Amino acid sequence: MENNEKLKRLILSESNFFLFGSRLEYDPIVMYEAINSDTRFITYNVGSCKNVINNEKKGFVSENDNKKINYIMKYLNTPTKNYSKKYLWSEICKRYYKIFKS
């Protein structure tokens, strides 16, 4: 299991984009994994994606596939940078704990 986790991190860290094709989601875990790996997350407007992917540095949310292609072409050779640590699992768990505790 640990080797799978290392492989997943390696693949995400080497990727420029994560294309998420799901049409029904609430709060996709892979979105946070992509952001933490400095991989831009491209998705349809599902679940919490639009609230989390709120600027082009993190990714792109659209129902229009041509706009997604244009986004990829625009950022194809632009390195990403993780601008926030708030999407680390340790931070997400703290927020959930606060909610459940109250």
Q: What structural class do helix, strand and pairing data support?
A: mainly alpha
What is the spatial order of strands in the main beta sheet? Answer: 1-2-3
Largest sheet: 3 strands, parallel
Assign the CATH topology: Rossmann fold
- Give the averaged pLDDT, no decimals: 84
CATH architectural category? 3-Layer(aba) Sandwich
As an assembly, this protein is: single chain
**Number of helices in the DSSP assignment:** 5
CATH class: Alpha Beta
How many domains in all?
Answer: 1
The topology string of helices and strands comes to: HEHEHEHH
What shape does the CA trace take? globular
Distance from N terminus to C terminus (CA atoms, Å) equals 34 Å
Structure description:
The chain has 102 residues and is mainly alpha-helical. Helix content is 48%, strand content 11%. It has a single domain (2-101), classed as Glycogen Phosphorylase B (Rossmann fold), CATH 3.40.50. The chain has helices spanning 2-14, 29-36, 49-52, 65-75, 89-101, and strands spanning 17-20, 40-43, 59-61. It starts with a helix and ends with a helix.
Main traits of this protein?
102 residues, mainly alpha, Rossmann fold
